[in-house]
Amino acid sequence: MSATTRPNTIFKNLNAKVAAIPMIATVLVVFIGCTLWTVVLSFTSSRSLPELTFVGFDQYARLFTTPRWNISAINLGIFGIFTLVFSTVIGFILAALMDQKIRFEGAFRTVFLYPYALSFIVTGLVWQWILTPTFGIQRVVRDLGFETFTFSILNNQRYAIYAIVIAGLWHGTGLVMALMLAGLRGIDEDIWKASRVDGIPIWKTYLFIVIPMMRPVFITTIVLISTGIVRVYDLVVALTGGGPGNASEVPAKYVYEFMFRRANLGQGLAASTIMLTTVLIIVIPWALMEYRGGKQK
Amino acid sequence: MTAISTLPTEPRGKRPTRTFAPATIMIYGILLVAALYYILPLYVMIVTSLKGMPEIRLGNIFSTPVEITFQPWSTAWTSACTGLYCEGLKVGFWNSVKIMIPSVIVSILIASVNGYALANWRFKGSEIFFSILLFGAFIPYQVMLYPLVIITRELGIFGTLTGIIVIHTIFGMPILTLLFRNYFASLPTELFKAARVDGAGFWRIFFQIMVPLSAPIFVVAVIMQVTGIWNDFLFGVIFAGSKNVPMTVQLNNIVNSTQGVKEYNVNMAATILTGAVPLLVYFFSGKYFVRGIAAGAVKG
Predict the structure, then answer these.
(1) Which of A225, B6, B74, B227 could form a disulfide with B278 if both were Cys (CB 3.0 to 4.6 A apart)?
(2) Under an 8 A CB cutoff, do A119 and B281 touch?
(3) From the list A30, A105, A125, which residue is nearest B148 (CB)?
(4) Contacts of B238 in chain A (CB under 8 A)
């Protein structure tokens, strides 16, 4: 209708542009604008209010001399490595078992995946209850007759972070399983036939043929888990509150505390910029790889 | 990528033969043990919520209740305390409903129209914006929180229902847009072209052709948003304001409050109540939920 009368390109396809206004605004203002704002202001001496006194890398220098931040960063490393390794390995093994043409596959999948529907708050509170030394697993085992059995990781500075690992695995492994299962179903049936004909044992087929073929699935899964790991926040708040002491603090919690509780904005912004950098280090190589892979197809 | 974006619901090949080979027993054995580990927390939550406090102090967390009581459930719902207020979790429940319904509707409306524009009415730069939008899904929320607080405060919507709805719409946009764009792009283009030839415009094609064909993807989107928004904690804490504290935040305040004697049975009843909405959605929507998380997780 209007295309014939209006030569101006802005008005061409106007409805689509109007429909895309929320997206354009979100991209420009939130994803680009807010991110840049945070990165720039992380180089200032802002305390309770944002100000534009630039101090170079001072906030970062202070960050890495703050014990609480260093504990947070180390905890993220521990949580990250354990979560990555265990959720990938367990997720894959479960998926491989589910792929053996078993009965009740739907029931098993429902059971493995339901924790993923629950919030991290619910997950954290349930595991807090199960791990409470006075009533939880420690008590249960002691009641069985092992009276010196100790399992009080929630009260132990050194092991509190592992409680978060346990709860996180319970929450997320089902998702990894679902992704891996979909990947396994994408493997050509002929591969299995060929390896059977050649008399290759099943475990060898998995290890040397199927897993290498599923490389893209593994990489995507690992990137997704990793970006989730960097964000871990609610789970810690609900399960340990960062305690005992600061023993199970994580970066996301550090950011929140310094921005909104302690009125030390510069520290919060610098810490969140470090979080961003971590995510970029994980995501950019992957995005480039995906982009190139997409081009080849 | 394409290999894992579709989840077959049925395994391929023959049905298993009825044999009890050692390998079969081992497979089922491992799966059952794993299933037990996954079910246990739900079981513990339920039995704990049905016991009285004396029984909890005497017994262990796995024992079935001797005397079933629903008192903890009614306490959790009507009179559990957060700080000085003892109005129960129902306050948080209704706040979450108040936040969730408009957020789900607004975010899906905007994202579906946007996905349609990106799939069928591409304009110069639309793909670039879309790529940045997807990339934005990976940025940790903490990076954008403070500037968003300033923006919402300047707009006068900080700490209001409108504010939290806008926030949920923004952060739901990448994945929802992707979901709708891919779905609309997968519909036969002949439909779109024929409608264009017949003189239908942007909105008419959307409402009369695209939407009626897209019921399944709207269901997936609703499921994703209902569970995602219900389970949100961070945005609720910061943007919802003290009058609209969502259920997850209130639950955490009830359970992790330091004052008073801890009533574990009430806590567990409250925890189940908070988890009930997404759990029911999950159990009743089965394959749609799986489809949603597959799309959500795999992004492509």
Answers:
(1) B227
(2) no
(3) A30
(4) 260
Whether the predicted model's global pTM rises above the 0.90 cut: no
The verdict on B28 touching A (C-beta cutoff 8 Å) is yes
Q: Calculate how close chain A gets to B252, using CA atoms only, in Å.
A: 6
- Tell me whether B162 touches chain A (CB under 8 Å): no
Neighbours of B63 (CB within 10 A): 15
- Count of domains in chain B? 1
The CATH number of the domain holding residue A273 is: 1.10.3720.10
Per-residue pLDDT of chain A (297 residues; tens, 9 = 90+): 444 555 567 777 888 888 999 999 999 999 999 999 999 999 998 888 888 888 888 889 999 999 999 999 999 999 999 999 999 999 999 999 998 888 888 889 999 999 999 999 999 999 999 998 888 888 888 878 787 777 878 888 889 999 999 999 999 999 999 989 988 988 888 888 888 888 888 888 888 889 999 888 898 888 888 888 998 999 999 999 887 888 899 999 999 999 988 888 999 999 999 999 999 998 888 888 877 766 554
Specify if B247 maps to a domain.
yes
The domain containing residue A188 runs over which residues?
69-296
CATH number of the domain enclosing B211: 1.10.3720.10
Name chain A contacts of B286, Cβ cutoff 8 Å. Answer: 106, 110
Q: Do A135 and B56 touch (CB under 8 A)?
A: yes
> Which residue of A lies nearest to B175 if distances are taken between CA atoms?
A23
Q: Residue A199 and residue A119: Cα distance in Å, rounded? A: 46
The residue segments making up the domain with residue B223 are: 90-298
Q: Looking at the complex, does the CB of residue B46 fall below 8 Å from at least one CB of chain A?
A: no
Q: What is the CA radius of gyration of chain B?
A: 24
* Nearest Cα residue in chain B from A263: B146
Q: Which residues of A touch B290 (CB under 8 A)?
A: 109, 113, 178
Q: In the structure encoding, which two tokens stand for residue A289, read together?
A: 């790889």
